[in-house]
């Protein structure tokens, strides 16, 4: 089943970032987007995850055109089906790690997966306040929080920037197992080509186009 279909996307800020870009994401599929700094990877991810409206072109989620959805429908899809793991974590700062996960569990009606907490190695820090956690711990808590929602599509922007190599690879394994088990899909943006090539498909954003490199 197709989870996401982007057609003929173009976007310009100060200069034209990309034009006429199309891509599709299917169930159990992972796609990595690499490219030099400033090439527009994060902007493209923002468009695919409905945070930004493209200058032209369309994005369909679960076979529904995003531009045709009313606000309520779009909000529901965002809440229930999209999981965003971005560079800034957006954890609730005054809360503990566990309280952050509990909020996600309550809002989505899902249970916290203790297995994921153990594998992300945040079990022993779970009662600490977010402000008392290291950058890498905060990143791992935010990954656990997004997975707790059980989204159908993961949009992931440099998820392992604060993590050592071993932890980064473990995080990728958790993502891959998650999408397999939940028939979900993932679009990953990263500078790290080694991590990128673990995905099923890899595209490079260069000269305003998406070039398939795997
Ligand atoms: N909201 C915005 N308003 C104006 N310009 C923007 C905005 N967001 C991004 N840009 C510009 O668009 C260009 C691409 O930015 P983007 O963040 O998409 O690049 P990137 O490929 O993700 O880079 P990096 O690898 O450094 O994260 C940059 O020149 C940036 O300054
Ligand atoms: Mg970026």
TrEMBL record:
Matching CDD domains: ABC_MJ0796_LolCDE_FtsE
All copies of domain ABC transporter, residue ranges: 1-213
UniProt GO molecular function: ATP binding; ATP hydrolysis activity
One of the Pfam families matching this protein, by short name: ABC_tran
Keyword ATP-binding part of the UniProt annotation: yes
UniProt keyword list: ATP-binding, Nucleotide-binding, Transport
Highest rank taxon of the organism: Bacteria
Family under the similarity heading: Belongs to the ABC transporter superfamily.
Identification of the protein by name: ABC transporter, ATP-binding protein
Naturally occurring in which organism (per UniProt): Sulfurimonas gotlandica (strain DSM 19862 / JCM 16533 / GD1)
């Amino acid at each position: 089943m197709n989870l996401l279909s982007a057609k003929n996307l173009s976007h310009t800020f100060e200069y034209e970032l990309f034009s006429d870009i199309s891509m599709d994401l299917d169930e159990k599929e992972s796609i990595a987007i690499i490219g030099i700094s400033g090439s527009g990877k994060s902007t493209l991810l923002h468009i695919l995850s409905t945070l930004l409206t493209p200058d032209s072109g369309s994005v369909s989620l679960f076979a529904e055109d995003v531009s045709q959805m009313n606000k309520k429908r779009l909000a529901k899809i965002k809440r229930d089906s999209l999981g965003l793991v971005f560079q800034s974590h957006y954890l609730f700062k005054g809360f503990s790690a566990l309280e952050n996960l509990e909020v996600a569990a309550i809002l989505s009606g899902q249970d916290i997966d203790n297995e994921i907490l153990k594998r992300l190695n945040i079990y022993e820090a779970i009662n600490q306040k977010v402000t008392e956690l290291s950058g890498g711990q905060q990143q791992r808590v935010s990954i656990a929080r997004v997975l707790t929602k059980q989204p159908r599509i993961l949009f992931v922007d440099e998820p392992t920037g604060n993590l050592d190599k071993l932890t980064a690879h473990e995080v990728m394994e958790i993502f891959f197992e998650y999408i397999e088990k939940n028939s979900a899909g993932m679009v990953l943006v990263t500078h790290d080509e080694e991590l990128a090539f673990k995905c099923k498909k890899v595209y490079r954003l260069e000269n305003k186009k998406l070039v398939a490199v795997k």
